[in-house]
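Make up an example, fold above all:
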Amino acid sequence: MSETKVLLEENELPTYWYNIAADLPRSLQPPLNPKTREPLHPEALAPIFPQGLIEQEISQERWIQIPEEVREILRLWRPTPLYRAYRLERHLSTPARIYYKYEGVSPTGSHKPNTAIAQAYYNKVEGVKRLTTETGAGQWGSALSLACHLFGLECQVYMVRISYQQKPYRHTQMKIWGAKVTPSPSLNTCAGREVLERDPDCNGSLGIAIGEAIEDALSHADTKYALGSVLNHVLLHQTVIGLEAQKQLKKAGDIPEVVIGCCGGGSNFAGLAFPFLCDKIHGKELRAIAVEPEACPTLTRGKFTYDFGDAARQTPLLPMYTLGHDFVPPGIHAGGLRYHGMSPLVSQLLLDGLIEARAYEQQACFEASLIFARTEGIISAPEASHAIRAVIDEALRAREEGKERVILFNLSGHGHFDMGAFEAYLKGDLSKEKTDES
């Protein structure tokens, strides 16, 4: 047995982000102005994003330098460890070699600070005083709360109501770092009030919360909006995960054949997979699997079309797989995967056959999470359990075929704020949630 952990020194932290837009076989379709249906001019994004992030959003440069001020903060927890899952392999009696990149070592317990720190930095240098955002399960809201505190910005978070109720300690975490947290839909905005008039008991959705956060940002001159997934610049910042993993696997003497990540808006999957997909685009063999919930099957049952990113229809029209901007998913515990649409970059990769998509219902994912916790010792977030489910299935497939296979996945965060969900599963009270949307 070789070492369980593959570690990098702080001086091996990436100095550049990788932009997959430079290597796509086909260029992305442009976002559209919803009023004219013509390609959106970048300056139209200026009311909600700083110029530095707008430039990254439209960039076709393969490598974009990470500012030293951002790298200084990332070094608080990065580089993150790469683990070889020996105990899981033995439990499954599989010839597969399983590796996982563990992002739960960040201050907030997930991968989200990788982009929150960058976004707060670019807003700070352009004189922004306050940021608004949405959050589902709370990982993103926590990350932006921390980032705003570190850069001296105010932070307003609209948290999907069902997650606000399910995960009270997540919004406590945000408040520790000085953020204001409001359950969404709320009475604070026109978008929220309209939803509550139709459905006073609405669970909320990421689309609704995004609408509230954007409306709030547009109504304050010193405020911009920050997004935790979906857009190109967000996925760009997450590629530090895959870039580190490439160095670590080289040290381990392995090359991944299957790369797996859970997928809600796309940032977690993209962060790990995009640097490896660069190799695939240039001829290397690789399977990349994006895993989503049956209750919100955007990639597996959604339609590729132009759609709004929010329920209030304030965003540009984005080319993506979508269940419809007014889709409100069931209240599954994987709150970070309850988004109606998918990142245009991830959507394009699926459309072009460069990645696969798979959906699981939440009971199967919690079952996989328990297997992982009882072998590897880490209690995963409900979101990450979707990736674990796919990893176990791939490892069992390797056992049935009698073939070695190198599997890499992103363990995007821990589940320490999700004990209520695990308690429900252990008691047999966890519901089977699927959607009838197609």
